[in-house]
Write a structure and sequence with these properties.
alpha+beta, 3 domains, five-stranded mixed sheet, two-stranded antiparallel ribbon, 20 helices, 7 strands, 54% helix, 7% strand, elongated, ParB/Sulfiredoxin domain-containing protein
Length: 474
Amino acid sequence: MTTDSHRRTFIARALQAYEEAPAPKETLTLQLRGGTVLPVVEIPLEIPVLNQDSFRIAPQLDDHPACAQVRADPYSPESQVIIAQLVEEVHRYSDELKENLVQDGQQQAGLITRDGKLINGNTRCVLLRQLDREGRGSATTLKVAVLNDTLSNRELLEVEMLLQQQVELKDSYRLTNHLMMIKRLHEADMTDEQIARTLRLRASNGQTGAQRILERREILRLMERARRLVFPPMPMSVFASDDDKLQNWQELLKKVKATEQNVGTVAAEHLIANWLIAYLTGNSSVHKLRFATDSLIEDHVLHELGQYKERIIPQSADLPTVQAPPPTGISLLDDDDDIADDNHQTNPEVRALLNVVAQARQADQNSEILLSTGQRTPAADVLQEVGGRVRKGLDIEKRKNAAGDRLMRPSGHLNTAKVQLRDALRALEDVKGDSQFEASKESVLELIAEISSLIAELTSALNGVPVQRTLPNE
């Protein structure tokens, strides 16, 4: 087993050999402190220790059952095995990178401290070790640039941030990793302005770079709040998906702030619960999810589920009390309790459905989940049944939104119909001389008759004349 002192001694000897070697020598320039030139050396694969503080695995490590053990003794063999597993699991292109290492070897140097901790290059180290064990790799060493001993912990965090912003054969950070990186930098006493400058996050859409960083910190707090609405709380890694979009969370954040200000905390959490059910059932497209309202599930899902609802939700949806974060006020970062009075009541069936959906989302999609009703049901069925009805509800809300508010909806829908009728007229003019169209002519005439009847009904309804419907209610 390689000890801490052995690692430090080995790296010191490698640096001494580097100094004594003739030119030219390989270096790496780091954009820190105005530009720092670092020596690049090769060390045996068993020397480095993987970085438990890497932003790349932060959400996954926080959710791991052995997190406390890893944090307490990160360099132990057991902890290093866990870190290696997480490093490989979170990398979206690990198989491709592994084959690239077989074909081309290590092209870019990692980054290591004098005591052997890898700041950058953890994935390459893990994969090169695997290749060595499998007998497929020709490399038994890892190429690394060695940092000096004068860097502070804050500067080490900044170094990883700088390197991980670069896009190469590594995969980019997921949203949760990006947000947790910002949190760690803020905890290391970097201001929002300093973080924005380092991330090259410039002013956009009326926000300064610092305001954009603040918004991201608020979003992370919102994620934390959202996961605790589920019983038991979901792991943060649920949000670490390839489909996650910053814009989804930005739009939810604005809605939550407005709801909290105008109605109160419970109403805001009910909005989050409705949004979460849509999100967790795979309806995460920005252009769909933005239409999730605080009554989406009551209006479009619970009744439509019919008997299936009785299977997955208890008759008495008497949920355990979920300990939510303290009232957060409008900024979501303050401990200000001065918010509007809240008489809003959360529908217990919505929270019950959220718990079931969250359980199904976290389960293996080929497995069954145990419901609070005592029954078992396939996880995939839950997501399909609920997700399908959510999707229809979002489509309805989208159409309602497109038609404008309640007073403008009649003219909005009629304008849409007018445009579509004009399109139909152009299409008819295009095919009316086509002999193959003759077979469809009768059905088109029937549709025109139905539309004419609807127009007559619209006129009567507008004039206050009772309407006797003769058409199917479709």
